[in-house]
Amino acid sequence: MVEKKDVPPEWPPVSGEYAIGDPKNPVVVSSLGTYFDDKKVLGFGASMVGPTKTENIGLEKIIANTISNPNIRFLILAGTEVPGHLTGNSMLALAEYGVDPNSKKIINAKGAIPFIENAPIEAVERFREQVEVIDMIGTEDLSKIGAKIKELMERDPGAFPEDPIIIKLGAETEEKEEAELPLAMPTKPVMDTLNKAIESIQYKSQLIVRDQKLTSGLSNNAILGILTGIILAIIISLPLILLR
User: Fold this and answer.
1) What CA–CA distance (Å, rounded) separates 197 from 235?
2) 48: which strand partners?
3) Cis peptide leading into 12, omega within 30 of 0?
4) Which residues does residue 19 pair with via DSSP β-bridges, in sequence order?
5) 168: closest CA among 32, 8, 46?
6) What are the pLDDT tens digits along the chain (244 aa)?
7) TM spans, by residue (predicted)?
8) 9: burial class by Cβ within 10 Å (0-12, 13-18, 19+)?
């Protein structure tokens, strides 16, 4: 049996859009811009799972919630990258190269704003010492992710030998992260918005067709042809509008 440490009662110290499993398990899963079935991932043995949407506040939350629990030794990056933010790439760069102590920029990160401003350099370095980052970016197959979790649990080195470090980012960082999200939206919210827009367009189109039948001599086929073209144009352009 590997050595484990008691988890601080306030763990995890930073709130977020994640689900919690057994805090003594060594693996955390970030789904980046994808939304996984949390229960399944936790069932494989992950101690925490959730999306990471931004390459600054999002990564700071992972750092804070990891170094406050010495039992966490692995971070799996899976799911689809958030366009523009590139949180997975930024985390890989942080793990390999660290953060410039003067500019606070993650060295060699390709994200839009890869700056760690709310977590001290000491916290970043502790994270880099404590955690091995596993690159599964682009993988959404839960069976593959589950197999990797089990593999990592088998080579669990035990709790990191130093005490937990508690840092709290505060409400201000929560608001800042929400403000940054329009740069790129995760797939699920975009599709929900798109589906609602399509339903609204279809309903309004039916009303227009009904009115046209009463007031115009145009054939039904001509009217429907025009409306179909308009709807298709809107559907094609709507994701681009939403992602601006």
Assistant:
1) 8
2) 20, 28
3) yes
4) 49
5) 8
6) 899 999 999 899 999 999 999 999 999 999 999 999 999 999 999 999 999 999 999 999 999 999 999 999 999 999 999 999 999 999 999 999 999 999 999 999 999 999 999 999 999 999 999 999 999 999 999 999 999 999 999 999 999 999 999 998 865 454 455 445 555 444 444 445 455 555 555 545 555 545 555 445 444 555 556 666 677 666 666 655 555 5
7) 222-243
8) exposed
